[in-house]
Specification:
- Helix content is 48%, strand content 13%.
- With 415 residues, it is of the alpha+beta class.
- It has two domains: 22-178, Beta Polymerase, domain 2 (2-Layer Sandwich), CATH 3.30.460.90; 226-380, no CATH class.
- Strands 1, 4, 5, 6, 7 and 8 form a six-stranded mixed sheet that branches.
Amino acid sequence: MTQELQFKYNSLLEEVASGLDISPSKYKQAVDRYKKVSMWISAGEYEGLGGEIHCYAQGSFRLGTVVRPIRGGEESGYDIDLVCEFPIIEDGITPEALKILIGNRLAENKEYQEMLDEEGRRCWTLLYSEQDGIGFHLDILPAIPGDPDYVSVEVGFTQKAIKITHKNKDESYEWSQSNPSGYADWFEAINKPTLDLIKALHQKRIFENNKGLFARIDDVPEVLIKTPLQKVIQILKRHRDLRFMNQEFEDDKPISMIITTLAARLYQNEADVFVALNNIVDQLDNLALLLNPEFVLSKSLQDLELIKRNSDGTWIISNPVNPNENFADRWHENKSSKARAFFQWVKWVKEDLIQILNSNDINELSKSLKTSLGEQMVNKALKSLQLRAASLSTVVASVPPRIEISNPNKPWGFE
């Protein structure tokens, strides 16, 4: 693999990730929508409040890793998660009452009533449709302040714990512990060193391409600036969606929280997408040895505690801001089918996105990427790179050539 090929491939991965991302105009539209919903919910009259209702974005929208999902083989609307945290103590309201309270408040608004989907296990969903075919699913998550009972996590993270409503299959309700804001702070702390290095340049670029959206460069929000870590996560999520589509074990595909957590923990501030992707996938592939119950990892991998397998066959991938939450709590089911699906997917990523570099042909790389990341997305990225190269060539051609004369006549020469 030549340096030139790696550079071209990295540029292509960068461009694909940009295509997967939500556009600045769509981002602004989403923010306007959830702020409007937040204001409507906050303006309601509720008994027992001990302060102001706090509504905030969570999940991939907050982390800057949002990818337009694929449903039924087609690209679907963006999923936006909104937490509505009511300042009520747990003894002051039941999870069922809080869930119904917010559902009724949404139904009081004629516009929201028409968009309101059936009640979900944890949230209410507003279904926005758009003329351009790109819509939003706004998930509104009812919550109250939590009371974390763990001490092994930085206090700044645990203070943001919440309890969310959860509806069981038997129609009963219960509180479920969560900490999306603390998780976002943890992720942002890992992402910040690289973000600080690229922020000024990327803010300027986004501003110049979207002057109708932002009055000045500083108005460009950080969430629109993507580091190699965030782009790697977006690429991995899209690869997962396509690779598992129509597979018999599609229901076992890795959840986004596992992908995001493991990628963040393995990120070493790499400067480009390809190097970060290569290092992350390589280490995850080493963990596949855990599928053999008798295998013991090397001390370096054990110390990282990324994925653990207990002697009873259960698996553990801990939430970094809540050790009591295990993202792999179902990995032991059905003969570890979800664990096997995860490590199979890691091998697919390695084959589809890393080892194809052995072809030493950018056209072959593009062909492979179309299968694993989507033909439309890769074609769009290639076109964008070609336009950028053509624009650069035009600029270079318009600059007058610099003519140097050796041994000029005085007074321009030097003795």
